[in-house]
């Protein structure tokens, strides 16, 4: 079950791509979370849920709480439904939903893993279309994250992730996130904290980074280059909140 957080996505959500993904993947179910949008997103999500009963559920947050809390609300709902694997995908579908099945197979083949992260690695034979500025800022941020977490994570901010449902995931989703945007890092910091307490394996045993075959920067992203300083500040706050 995949959560898609939506904020003012009435004219941007690719309904045709959602329809195609549901047709192609009988095991794929979606939770579309309206994060207090000011446009017609809520009506659109309700209509999609009515068109695809049992495959799409719409969750409405009465006020905007940020991507992190929208994802957390959706994932807790997905876990409560009894889904075996739960994850989240960005609403722009920069990563095709086809990869949900790929991530699920990795979790099937590696029972000790908790999660698979999509990773935007520019390799020959892969189509990763990302501006040079975003790419290099992303590398700087990833280095900062790796230092903070003491783990060599290549890409925490790609909006394509799948998790194995269970007590460990429930534990890291229990509290609201501090950060509205880099909650992905905060989630890993919580896993680190559980490991130090003897309640979870180390990150390298839980996390698998999958180099995506396709990823395309889509216009209209809610996160801009100007948000880099804010993300750096959030990382600092997370570091001191969850440090040993």
Notable traits:
9 helices; 42% helix; alpha/beta; 244 residues; two-stranded parallel ribbon; Spore Coat Polysaccharide Biosynthesis Protein SpsA, Chain A; 7-stranded mixed sheet
Description:
With 244 residues, this protein is of the alpha/beta class. It has a single domain, classed as Spore Coat Polysaccharide Biosynthesis Protein SpsA, Chain A (Alpha-Beta Complex). Helix content is 42%, strand content 18%. The chain has 9 helices and 9 strands. The strands form 2 sheets. Strands 3-2-1-4-7-5-8 form a 7-stranded mixed beta sheet, with helices on both faces. It has a two-stranded parallel ribbon with strand order 6-9. α5 packs parallel to α9. The model has no long low-confidence stretch (mean pLDDT 95).
Q: What is the helical fraction, as a range of percent?
A: 40-55%
> How is the biggest beta sheet arranged?
7 strands, mixed
CATH topology: Spore Coat Polysaccharide Biosynthesis Protein SpsA, Chain A
Point out poorly predicted stretches: none
- Cα(first) to Cα(last) distance is 33 Å
**Beta strand count:** 9
From N to C, what is the helix and strand string? EHEHEHEHEEHEHHHEEH
- Give the class-level CATH name: Alpha Beta
Average per-residue pLDDT, rounded, comes to 95
**Number of DSSP helical runs:** 9
Shape: globular
User: Gyration radius, to the nearest Å?
Assistant: 17 Å
Reported CATH architecture: Alpha-Beta Complex
The strands making up the biggest β-sheet line up spatially as 3-2-1-4-7-5-8
Structural class: alpha/beta
Number of domains: 1
Q: So, the CATH homologous superfamily?
A: Spore Coat Polysaccharide Biosynthesis Protein SpsA, Chain A
Content of β-strand: 15-25%
């Amino acid at each position: 079950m995949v959560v898609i957080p939506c904020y003012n996505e009435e004219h941007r959500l690719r309904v045709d791509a959602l329809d195609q993904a549901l047709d192609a993947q009988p095991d794929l179910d979606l939770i579309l979370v309206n994060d207090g949008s000011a446009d017609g997103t809520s009506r659109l999500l309700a209509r999609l849920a009515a068109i695809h009963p049992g495959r799409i559920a719409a969750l409405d947050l009465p006020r905007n709480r940020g991507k992190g809390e929208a994802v957390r609300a959706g994932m807790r709902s997905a876990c409560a439904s009894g889904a075996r694997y739960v994850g989240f995908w960005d609403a722009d579908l920069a990563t095709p939903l086809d990869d949900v099945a790929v991530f699920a197979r990795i979790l099937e083949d590696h029972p000790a893993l908790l999660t698979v992260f999509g990773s935007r690695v520019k390799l020959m034979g892969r189509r990763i279309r990302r501006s040079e500025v975003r790419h290099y800022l992303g590398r700087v941020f990833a280095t900062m994250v790796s230092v903070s977490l003491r783990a060599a994570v290549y890409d925490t901010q790609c909006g394509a992730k799948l998790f194995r449902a269970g007590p460990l995931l429930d534990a890291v989703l229990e509290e609201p996130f501090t950060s509205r945007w880099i909650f992905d890092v905060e989630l890993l910091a919580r896993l680190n904290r559980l490991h130090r307490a003897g309640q979870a394996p180390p990150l390298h045993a839980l996390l698998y980074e999958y180099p995506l075959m396709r990823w395309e920067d889509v216009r209209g992203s809610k996160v801009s280059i100007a948000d880099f300083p804010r993300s750096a500040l959030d990382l600092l706050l997370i570091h001191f909140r969850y440090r040993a």
